[in-house]
Amino acid sequence: xxxxxxxxxNKILFGRYVPGASFVHRMDPRAKLILSLIYIxxxxxxxSWSAYAVSFIIALTIIASSGIAPKxxxxxxxxxxxxxxxxxxxxVFFGVGxxxxxHWGILSITSDGLLNAVYIAIRFVLIILVSTVLTLSTxxxxxxxxxxxxxxxxxxxxxxxxxxxxxxxxxxxxVPTLIDETEKILNAQRSRGxxxxxxxxxxxxxxxxxxxxxxxxxxxxxAEELATAMESRGYQGGEGRSKYRVLNYTKNDIIGTIFMxxxxxxxxxxxxxx
Length: 274
Prior knowledge:
Elements: H1 3-11, H2 29-45, H3 49-66, H4 70-77, H5 81-94, E1 100-104, E2 107-110, H6 111-137, H7 140-150, H8 161-191, H9 201-207, H10 209-232, H11 251-270
Antiparallel strand pairs: 1-2
Helix pairs in contact: 2-6, 2-11, 3-6, 3-11, 4-6, 5-6, 7-8, 8-10
């Protein structure tokens, strides 16, 4: 893997948190989660240029109210450009409906296929931008606490709410750590003369073994150390435990909810407008 691969590893924002005191930072994590999901659903239901224009303005407003530098959002989109392009290409050549511009076997380029490909690209970008705001403005502990609180009604049907919240918080906590660990292993292998960017695909996959083995070993060691630490501190599950961070809804959450409800209603009105 080349130097570009290392740069991509550093650009992955999943599980990272940027401290701040902006409007979005001060919102309750439960409200941020629910409103983000509502926005994503609204974006998927949008089906016109006017609806996507409103969605884009909403995303820019959310970004501005987060107080996070625009560079972070470009870093969030850049690693997924390949996925977006692949999805667009599949939609272009396999989409059906409308005027047929080109056809060969099972492949075809149609007017509806091209339009849907553009819509899908816009949806991807908007969802990534809003998800990046959620990730960067909310710490992993707040996200896990919010999910635990939202899923608490399922406890009545014996759903393992505490265990799920614990697994999620640990996963979010160690994703950046594992990414950094992968970068260290890549640098160590490159310093020994390993070249992950040359050779056939099978040869490159075989070279990845020298990365995966120490990475898995490190992950298992961290998991064992964490389990020992939790056991030594008498962890017995989440039942009856007090919390240092108490979640409370504030006026910011009310303002954010009103803004999102009005925005979603506008998207629904414009969803079929040309």
